[in-house]
Design brief:
Layout lengths: L3 H24 L4 E13 L4 E12 L4 E7 L2 E4 L11 E14 L5 E17 L2 E16 L2 E17 L12 E12 L4 E16 L2 E12 L7 E14 L15
Parallel strand pairs: 1-12
Antiparallel strand pairs: 1-2, 2-3, 2-4, 3-5, 4-5, 5-6, 6-7, 7-8, 8-9, 9-10, 10-11, 11-12
Length: about 260
């Protein structure tokens, strides 16, 4: 069980998130909120190959839209993995399909192939430091027209277990994470936006975890400063199919 101080620590994280986003929204009526329940699943084929799937519902009342996103099973390849070692390098590939109900315009459909590289710094006290770079080729279909948006995004994150000793990353314990992720538009060659993210997670079982995730987003058009524009509130369920050696489902992908 967590000590009282760690419960207070988790409560303080949630309080800061709520106060920050509420205060910012009060200062600017243009600040939007998105609510994103998601499910991420993974199934190890063997030590080198892992299948994953990401499903999300996006409700954005200020943007007047609702989106349903589904990936076909994507693949993660760990070329150096052997006997539990060499797992610091992962190669990712998959495709997201997203249907958007636009309340005041015609609906749209997106196909988004994704390829990425994720690297890990060797663990120190079981803390994970991760870099995840992804290339996305976004293709939109709306009103019998097609538009394309290639972009590159790069997330740098740290994941910290809140338990001690051998209980770190064990069932019944909490963890926290923080990261920053800039997005570059490759067609118009500019920094499109930057997201800061905070996560509080709970490991329910060896193959099941629950996460509460908050994103703050800064964005702006080409040549303009990046302004604080909105919040993303996400509840995520992560689980691993009962296969392989019970690798903890650290599959972490979003849109």
């Amino acid at each position: 069980m967590l000590r009282r101080s760690k419960y207070l620590y988790l409560a303080n994280i949630l309080l800061v998130i709520v106060v920050f986003s509420t205060h910012a929204a009060a200062q600017d009526n243009n600040i939007w909120d998105e609510y994103r329940p998601s499910v991420i699943s993974a199934m190890p084929i063997n030590e080198k190959w892992i299948l994953f799937q990401y499903n999300v519902l996006i409700y954005a009342p200020e943007k007047k839209l609702t989106t349903i996103g589904v990936t076909l099973p994507g693949i993660t390849y760990r070329p150096l993995a052997k006997n539990g070692k060499g797992t610091w390098l992962e190669l990712w590939a998959g495709t997201l399909f997203a249907w958007t109900d636009n309340y005041h315009t015609t609906n749209s459909f997106e196909v988004r192939p994704v390829a990425g590289v994720r690297t890990f710094v060797p663990r120190i006290r079981k803390v994970n430091i991760i870099n995840f770079g992804r290339y996305e080729y976004r293709k939109f279909y709306q009103d019998n027209q097609t538009t394309e948006q290639p972009r590159f995004r790069d997330r740098v994150s740290i994941e910290i277990p809140l338990a001690k000793g051998d209980k770190r990353w064990a069932p019944g314990t909490y963890y926290t994470a923080a990261d920053v992720e800039p997005f570059w538009r490759l067609d118009d060659k500019f920094l499109e936006k930057v997201r800061l993210r905070g996560t509080v997670g709970y490991i329910v079982r060896r193959r099941l975890a629950l996460e509460f995730i908050y994103h703050a987003e800064w964005a702006g058009s080409k040549g303009k400063p990046k302004n604080y524009v909105g919040n993303i509130w996400r509840v995520s369920i992560k689980f691993l199919f009962p296969r392989g050696k019970g690798i903890f489902p650290r599959i972490d992908i979003d849109d």
